[in-house]
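Researcher: I'd like a structural prediction for the single chain below. Treat it as a standalone chain; there are no partners to consider.
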Amino acid sequence: MKNVPILYSLQHCPYAIRARTALIKAKQPVFIRAIKLDNKPQEMLLASPKGSVPVLVLRGRESDPIVVLEESLDIMLWALRQNDPNNLLHCENPQALSLMVSFIAQFEHAFIPIFESYSCAKRYHNSNLNECRQACEDYLNSLEERLSSHRYLFSENESLVDIALFPFLRKFAKVDKQRFRQSPYPNLRKWLNGYLQSSLFSAVMKQHELWLDDRKDCYL
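Model: Treating it as a single chain, here is the predicted structure.
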């Protein structure tokens, strides 16, 4: 029990969602501590002063130093390097991992900022809404094109890329649900729905009691 890693998590944060997805995919036991951003546990802030989730605290033997992973992609990679039953890292291809990490980094650099601008423009009825939406759709077109060539974003088989991106595309689809349902992205919608309608996603999104309420650790 003492050696079980601790995950600090926020239920609807896409970074936390993808970390939880990888941990569940890897069948990695962790204690999950659900938090609220306006009432962060002191234990979490001591482990990771930046104060954002997810945070994974790795605990070894008493003589071993505690290791803290503060980035969702680092948590995903750590989990899948422990156990990767679905071969999400495509271990048969020596170049696959570096290509996947580059793909994810490019997505985070190119899409997430324009998506956040679109989300704000929609929420606050800004005059640049159409411009922001179009910038997002230009990027979504590239994903739709990839999915017209193979079943998943990186290849014919599921990969790290898919589970790293789907929480953000879920969030995009929720900004204007009706518009997304009518958008010319049939492959992207099918791919996304495959995750959202899965038992995996139900497990990932399971509601956990806030840890600070009773400080009781429970498994993810």
